[in-house]
Write a structure and sequence with these properties.
Blueprint: E1 2-5, H1 15-19, E2 29-30, H2 51-65, E3 71-76, H3 78-88, E4 94-100, H4 115-122, H5 128-137, H6 139-147, H7 149-157, H8 169-173, E5 191-195, H9 204-214, E6 217-220, H10 228-242
Parallel strand pairs: 1-2, 1-3, 3-4, 4-5, 5-6
Helix pairs in contact: 2-3, 6-7
Length: 247
């Protein structure tokens, strides 16, 4: 079985971009919308957005639909942090783990995630165009746009998502989590880190820290600003190679 976990402010449909053509035929895929994302009706309180609580929700769903066979996990950004927690929990036999564009670190609210609580606060304003104007005037958005306009546009797209204001607690609370404690990031399965250059939300130095903690290999994609299609084809190819033989 393959567990596919999306990033903060995204939803399960985004995982198709990474996994199209990469999953062997016949493999069961569980790709949930995380709490307060996509069509998931659950919102909740701040404590519900602790990474351990979110990982437990996913694990319970995996137990419900799984058949006891080894689990492979592909996690993107927030999904990478959740994947590492699930993989380290000892609750499932593991096959292999792909950690894509990790963004969470050993610190709560690292600088690369500061844009999300800002956006969560701005979404109190009911008028999307006003939210966009305030977002673009912020130093956090301008810093992202200076490094990567493509990633700045992706942040903007969250403003007009369905239920954006209703689900904004996810943006306020989730970035406050740490992904792991130094020296404690050990995954008992073959693991790869896939990263991107010129990505201010998922910086290379964060991916490198994950790589070094895990003692695993890291591969780097083309930059998003040089062509999103080329970047996604690269991820599909790398994941397709990594997932050969899973069941």
């Amino acid at each position: 079985m393959l567990l596919a976990l999306h990033g903060l402010g995204s939803d399960a449909s985004a995982m198709r971009g990474y996994l199209t053509g990469a999953v062997p035929p016949g493999v069961q895929v569980l790709a949930p919308d995380l709490r307060a994302h996509g069509a998931n009706p659950l919102i909740g309180e701040p404590d519900d957005f602790a990474l351990e609580a979110m990982a437990d929700e996913i694990a319970r769903e995996l137990i419900r639909v799984g058949d006891g066979s080894p689990v492979s996990i592909v996690g993107v950004s927030l999904g990478a942090a959740l994947a590492s927690i699930i993989a380290r929990s000892g609750r499932f036999p593991l096959d292999r783990i792909a950690l894509v564009r990790p963004a969470f670190t050993t610190e709560p609210l690292p600088p690369n995630l500061a844009i999300f609580p800002l956006l969560g606060r701005l979404l109190e304003e009911p008028r999307p165009q006003r939210v966009l104007a305030q977002l673009r005037a912020s130093g956090a958005w301008r810093g992202i746009a200076h490094e990567s306009l493509a990633h700045a546009r992706a942040i903007e797209a969250q403003v007009t998502q369905p239920r954006a204001a209703e689900q904004r607690i996810r943006l306020l609370e989730i970035p406050r989590n740490v992904a792991y404690r130094p020296g404690a990031l050990r995954i008992p399965a073959p693991t790869v880190v896939l990263a991107s250059p010129r990505d201010p939300v998922h910086p290379l130095h964060v991916a490198e820290a994950w790589r070094d903690e895990l003692g695993t290999r890291m591969l780097v994609s083309p930059a998003r600003d040089d062509g999103e299609e080329a970047m996604m084809r690269w991820f599909q190819q790398q994941l397709g190679s990594f997932l050969v033989g899973i069941r």
